[in-house]
Amino acid sequence: VATTLGKLGVHAAPAVPKLATCLQDPSEDVRIAVAVTLGQLGEQAAPAVPELTECLKDSSEAVRNYQETSP
């Protein structure tokens, strides 16, 4: 679902708050997918910046690396 939202661009903006909460998901795969999706949304993902900043502390190096591609 997150990947599909990323392809919707500006039309996915209403989902950004929910996506941001998914950055706390226990699954590394979910956190990566959400970080990638937020990166695809570009400026539309700006409301998720605080949560993305927290991803810099993620235990997963993959999540931390994908977070760096987000806004």
Oligomer: single chain
What is the typical, i.e. mean, pLDDT? 82
Describe the biggest sheet?
none
Determine Rg (CA atoms, Å). 10 Å
Q: Low-confidence parts, pLDDT < 50 over ≥5 residues?
A: none
Q: Which range does the strand content fall in?
A: under 5%
Total number of beta strands:
0
State the end-to-end distance: 20 Å
Number of helices in the DSSP assignment:
5
Could you explain how this protein is built, in words?
This protein is mainly alpha-helical and 71 residues long. It contains 5 helices and no strands. The mean pLDDT is 82.
Describe what is shown at a glance.
This protein is an all-alpha fold and 71 residues long. It has helices at 2-8, 16-22, 28-41, 49-54, 61-67.
Question: Helices, strands, pairings?
Answer:
Blueprint: H1 2-8, H2 16-22, H3 28-41, H4 49-54, H5 61-67
Helix pairs in contact: 1-3, 2-3, 3-5
Keywords:
71 residues, mainly alpha, 5 helices, 58% helix, 0% strand, globular
